[in-house]
Amino acid sequence: MARTHIHLAPALSDHAILPRPNSTLRIYLSVPALLAAGIPLYTSLNGVVLTPGNAEGVVTSEYWRFAERKVNGQWVPVWRDGRDVQ
Fold this sequence. Notes:
Elements: E1 6-8, E2 25-29, H1 31-36, E3 42-43, E4 49-51, E5 64-71, E6 74-80, E7 83-84
Antiparallel strand pairs: 1-4, 2-5, 3-4, 5-6, 6-7
């Protein structure tokens, strides 16, 4: 069985579905920008947010708001406002 959608966590909270504990990268997306571009979002029965992405099946960085990477147990910003963060 092949996946046909990108799986997303809806939020980072004690009361929401969280990313997998071994995740090392978090990318925060702009929902309004995705929807304005005609990229649909769906919620599955188990609460996971799904998207087929663009025509190539990806969500490109133009729809990112922020990204952070786990380094030595800490989340460190690596991308913001269209550019890499040092």
